[in-house]
Write a sequence for this structure.
């Protein structure tokens, strides 16, 4: 090759500068380049696939962004409405009413019960209540009225007098009841608080005590759905990238700068991306017009909160559109050193920065255990997102070296399919990245859904097992003291055949261990197959109810008593054992219709079944399924784009080899083998990551069955991609004709 003289170099540089000046100096250059991009979007190979891919990607990114805005707006609205109904505690001299909070449940969902007793004619009303009900009447939230109908919620706390309006509910799905007690509360009951007004700014009733910080749902949303949406964008941006890479090289050779290439690329992607973003505003508009129930969580999204956030939502949609276009521009760069016109489009090597970023993600995961307690989960989640986003680049690096080895092996042994497939794998690692991206993130999401779901805690799992074995036949009543007359009234209202026992906790202190005493009449103890003092015959075995009590209470001792009663200091509680399941509603009604009810009724372990953590799995499922849909779409777009590319590239081989078997061979070595390697590496990293997470949070478990199923599915997909790629190439070969390109 002849070396250019300084004069020739000067003339070439001047030509380049002049061309660049021509491009930049024309007034309507930007418009021309934009029209070129728009035309290219309608005429490049695979244009329809890329159009719909970018549309879907823009929709996905905007959808997650708008969901984030709706989440923040919902949290703000909840806080505002909770503050409006917060009670202002005062002294007895300035009290306008007495106020007490209680708890109940409908099914496995918690219910907040507010007991009220006005002291003056002008006693203030909580938000959501338009008038004072009569003594003994109750106002219920619409959702509590709907879900508790089968459990007799209308008559559980008193006579039904109406519903609470939405102004008094933090969400339309809140379950809350306001009860005006029939009798004057006793003066010595410290649970009744004197209240002067409502609107203290510190309301912690209903759903508010269990409300997590807003960062928790946002982290889950972007980890499980946002990352797949961004992966879909990267995949869609590179569909049919060969033509755009050649165009970018031509523009650079003509003296075009990165701005000119950016305008063309933006023009090509602007229409589908803009339409996808606009389409994402449709569900947001629906959510701002009507209250929507988010299945399977059962949560009802308040449309008023979504409606007030429209200006922020529009801004978020614009930002998401710019992010999509930025990814499109960023994935079609060229070398800027002037020594090459080849595009830096990740076709010939794996950029070192991708590997470094993946290493940063792994480092964050490893060091999360040393972060402050409150920041550990956030650091771990951020590291997880970064690691899964760039793990496919590590896979591509491994397969690139594998491709080099396969090509050399195929050359030595004369295996055409291995030679060609190995060279393609070595020179096009970006193809493997896009194909493996969906599988890597997909396996990660499935594993994280399973592990997070298992984080219900040991107590919640034991509660579920207890409910499966004995249903609701053991019912606990936490009381603030019951008189003898109230106890007898309660006993007489129980379903026929029910046993009434009294439970007391004893803690003598070290070195002795605490124990629980359960006392009842001899007849009741014998029904439970427990020996009564003086019995000469020991019962054979014990009832399932007694076995579950021992699981929950620990060291249990049974004693005889001729009279079941509880002390007023709250150190004792009642236990009801019903003869058959399904009588919890009758027990609750018997307890809450007592004069000045001061009880909390729940099944054995029921407070763990109805905890907010027990319903965490529903939110993980909602976000995870959304992310899986996005990642499946990314995998489909990536595979379809590869079929379009490989069928054109492989078709001429039929002329050179005269055999159709070469299609299967090349496709297997170029697609199936790298994807199988990606599956194995991803499975190993996922197993380590899940075990590390469990050791970090000290709870949960890894389902190796779920992980094995995910790996097996990806292995089948790898085989299918290779088979379909070869089939597409074989069909194209039947009608292939040389063209002058």
């Amino acid at each position: 090759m002849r070396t250019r003289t300084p004069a020739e170099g000067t003339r070439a540089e001047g030509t380049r500068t002049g061309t660049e000046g021509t491009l930049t100096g024309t007034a309507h250059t930007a418009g021309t380049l934009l029209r070129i991009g728009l035309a290219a979007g309608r005429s490049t190979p695979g244009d329809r696939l890329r159009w719909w891919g970018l549309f879907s990607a823009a929709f996905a990114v905007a959808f997650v962004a708008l969901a984030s805005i709706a989440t923040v707006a919902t949290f703000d609205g909840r806080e505002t409405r909770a503050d409006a109904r917060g009670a202002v505690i005062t002294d007895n001299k300035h009290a306008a009413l007495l106020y007490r909070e209680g708890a109940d449940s409908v099914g496995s969902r918690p219910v907040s019960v507010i007991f009220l007793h006005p002291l003056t004619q002008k006693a203030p009303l909580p938000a959501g209540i338009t008038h004072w009900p009569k003594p003994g009447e109750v106002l219920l939230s619409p959702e509590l009225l709907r879900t508790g109908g089968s459990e007799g919620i209308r008559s559980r706390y008193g006579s039904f007098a109406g519903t609470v309006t939405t102004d008094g509910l933090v969400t339309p799905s809140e379950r809350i009841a306001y009860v005006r007690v029939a009798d004057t509360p006793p003066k010595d009951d410290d649970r009744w608080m004197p209240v002067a007004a409502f609107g203290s700014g510190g309301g912690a009733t209903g759903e508010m005590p269990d409300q997590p910080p807003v960062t928790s749902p946002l982290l889950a949303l972007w980890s499980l759905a946002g990352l797949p949406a961004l992966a879909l964008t990267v995949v869609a941006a590179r569909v049919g990238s060969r033509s755009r890479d050649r165009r970018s090289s031509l523009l650079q050779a003509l003296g075009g700068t990165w701005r000119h290439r950016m305008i063309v690329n933006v023009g090509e992607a602007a229409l589908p991306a803009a339409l996808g973003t606009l389409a994402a505003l449709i569900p947001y508009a629906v959510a701002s017009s009507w209250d929507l129930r988010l299945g399977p969580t059962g949560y009802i999204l308040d449309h008023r909160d979504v409606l007030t956030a429209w200006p922020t939502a529009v801004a978020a949609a614009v930002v998401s559109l710019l992010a999509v276009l930025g990814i499109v521009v960023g994935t079609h760069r060229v070398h800027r050193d002037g020594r090459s016109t080849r595009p830096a489009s990740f076709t010939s090597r794996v950029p070192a920065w991708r590997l470094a970023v993946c290493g940063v993600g792994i480092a964050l995961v490893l060091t999360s255990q040393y972060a402050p307690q409150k920041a550990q989960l956030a650091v771990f989640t951020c590291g997880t997102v970064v690691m899964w986003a760039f793990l496919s680049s590590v896979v591509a690096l491994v397969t690139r070296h594998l491709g080099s080895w396969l090509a050399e092996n195929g050359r030595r042994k004369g295996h055409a399919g291995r030679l060609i497939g190995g060279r393609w794998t070595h020179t096009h690692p970006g193809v493997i990245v896009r194909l493996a991206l969906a599988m890597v993130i997909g396996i990660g999401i499935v594993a994280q859904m399973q592990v997070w779901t298992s984080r219900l805690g040991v107590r919640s799992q034991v509660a579920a097992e207890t409910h499966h074995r004995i249903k609701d036949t053991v019912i606990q009543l936490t009381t603030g003291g019951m008189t003898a007359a109230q106890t007898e009234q309660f006993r007489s209202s129980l379903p026929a055949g029910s046993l009434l026992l009294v439970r007391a906790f004893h803690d003598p202190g070290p070195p002795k261990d605490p124990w629980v005493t359960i006392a009842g009449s001899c007849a009741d103890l014998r029904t439970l197959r427990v020996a009564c003092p003086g019995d000469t015959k020991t019962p054979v075995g014990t009832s399932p109810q007694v076995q579950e009590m021992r699981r929950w209470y620990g060291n249990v001792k049974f004693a005889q008593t001729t009279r079941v009663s509880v002390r007023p200091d709250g150190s004792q509680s009642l236990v009801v054992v019903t003869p058959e399941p399904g009588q919890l509603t009758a027990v609750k009604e018997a307890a809450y219709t007592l004069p000045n009810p001061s009880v909390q009724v729940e099944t054995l372990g029921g407070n763990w079944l109805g905890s907010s953590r027990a319903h965490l799995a529903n939110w993980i499922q909602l976000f995870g399924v959304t992310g899986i849909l996005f990642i499946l779409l990314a995998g489909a777009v990536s595979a379809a784009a590869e079929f379009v590319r490989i069928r054109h590239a492989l078709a001429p081989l039929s002329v050179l080899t005269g055999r159709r078997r070469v299609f299967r061979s090349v496709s297997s070595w170029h697609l199936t083998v790298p994807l199988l390697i990606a599956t194995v590496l991803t499975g190993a990293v996922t197993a380590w990551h899940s075990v590390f997470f469990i050791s970090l949070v000290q709870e949960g478990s890894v389902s190796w069955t779920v992980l094995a199923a995910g790996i097996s599915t990806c292995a089948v997909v790898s085989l299918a991609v290779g088979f379909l790629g070869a089939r597409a190439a074989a069909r194209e070969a039947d009608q292939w004709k040389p063209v002058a390109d």
